[in-house]
Write the C-alpha cells for this entry.
Amino acid sequence: MSDFPDPLSFDCVHDFFAHTADVYPERAFVEVLAETSGIYGITAGEISYRGMSERVSDLRERYRSAGYGVGHRVGMLLENRPSFFEHWFALNGLGVSIVPVNPDLRSAELEYLINHSEMSLAIAISDRQADMRAAGAGLAVIGPDDEIPEASTRATIQSGTRESEAALLYTSGTTGLPKGCVLSNTYFLNCGSWYRNVGGHCAIGFDEERMLTPLPLFHMNALACSSMAMVAVGGCLIVLDRFHPGTWWQSVKDSKATVVHYLGVMPALLMNAPVTELETDNSVRFGFGAGVDKKLHGPSEERFGFPLIEGWAMTETGNGGITVCSKGDRHVGTSNIGAPEPEVAVRIENDAGGECGIGEPGELLVRRNGPDPKFGFFDRYLKDEEATSEAWRDGWFHTGDIVAKCDDGTMVFVDRKKNVIRRSGENIAAVEVESILNRHPGIEVCAVAATPDPIRGDEVFACIIRADASAGTDSSAFADALMQWCQGQMAYYKAPGYIALVDKIPLTSTNKIQRGELRKLVENLRNDPGTIDARRFKKRTAA
C-alpha cells in the first residue's frame, strides 16, 4: 500500500498505532488462542484495531488525568497478554516510558530492577502484585483493570517525541547485573519501518499478515520487531504465553499464521519430536529468527516446508544495525547471518584492532551510515556512562560477537567473544561444541565454558544434563562413550577436557545460557570429585 505512511513519519508508537487503527479499524490486531486463553484465564479470540484503539484512548485519558507524562517510568509485569498493549500504547501517547518486567524474576532481582529504573508505578498480574510491592518499598502497584493512582509528581509534559524514551529494556544479564537499555520512539518506529521495507525472503505485505510468536514481550524481538511489523502493515499478532513444543504445530494451524518468529532452540526441539501431519498443514511463508543449529537448518526447512530466515541483532542495535539473510543465497547450513543493508556499516576487527580478511573471525562492529551513527540503536545504558562509552568506542558499536566475512559480503556467526575458548592457540566456539554435543542421543542439553589449563591456557569444560535413556549409565562409562563419539564428530581439541553431569544449567527466561553463572558453576565444579577428567582422549591420533 504505497500511500500508507512510513512508520518513521510519526512522532511516537501511540500515533503510529492510532493511524493504522484509523485505516484498518475492522482488522484483527491481536488474537488470543484457546490454549493461551486457558493458561492465562482470559478471553480467547481476536481484538480488532478499533477495539484496541478504544481501550487505549480510554486508558490514556485516565493516565493523563492522574498526572502521568514525560519523565515517568511504569513497570509492566503483564506477561504476553493483550492488556500489555493497552497500557503500553496509552502510556506512550503521554510520553511515559515502560519497563517490561520478566515474570520469572524474584525478590532480589525485582528489587534491583525497581530501584535501578526508578519506576513511578507498576502494573502487574494479580499473583505477582504482592511480590512487586514487597520489592518496591512503597511502589504503587495495580492490576491492569484497577483504578490508576495519582502520580506522586505530576508531569508538566504529556506527549512524547521521536527522541523521547519509550521503553527501558533490561538485557538478559548473562554476565553481571542486567543493564537498562534506554530505547526511544525512533528505535521502535524504525523496527516497523525496517520490517515493512526489507523485502526479499522475509517480505511482508498489507494483505492481512498474521504473525505468530512465542517470544516474551519483555524481549526486544517480540516487543519491537513483531509488534511494530504488524502495526506497519495492519497485520495481526498472535502472542503465545511461551513455546510449547507439543502443541506448537496446532497453534501454527489455529492461528492461520503467515509468519512465525523463532529462536534456535525451537527447531532443535521440533526436529526431535515425532513427525506429525500438522507440521505441513499451515499457511506459513517463512520463519524469522536466529541461532538455528547449522546442521538442522536444511533438514528443518525440508521437513516443515518453509524457509527459516536467519538474522542478527541485539537489544542495543535494534533494527538500526540488523543483518539478515533477506536477499540472494541464504547459505543454509553455515550459520550465515546475511549481509548488511546499504544503510548499515560493519567492520570485523581482530584483537590487534586491525580489519579482518575474508574468512578470518573477528569482533563485529556496527554503526549507521550517514550523519547519525546511532540511528535506530539504543540511546544509552541507564546510569552507566562508562559502559555506554566503552560499547561505542571509536565511533563503532562493539557487539562482542565473533563473525567472519564470506566472499559475497555475507557473514557467518561464530560465537560471543567472551565464549570463545583459547586452547593451545586454537579458538574454539562454545556454541559450536554445544551444538554438536546436543545431537548426542544420551544428552538432553549441555553448556560449554573455558576452564584454566596450566599448559594450554584454556580447556573445554562441558556441563551435561543426561537424557532419561542414559541417566542410569555409570558416569565414567557415559563419559568414555561420549568422548569416543566426539572423535568422529569434531576436531580432537574441541572435545570436552572435563565433563560434569549436572541436574540444571543456568538459563535466561528466553532459554539462553547465562554465561556468567555458567562460568561460576564451572569454577565450582572444576575440583568436584564427580567431575570427570577426559583429557586423555584428546589426542590428534586418537582412534
Notes: The two ends are 63 Å apart (CA to CA).
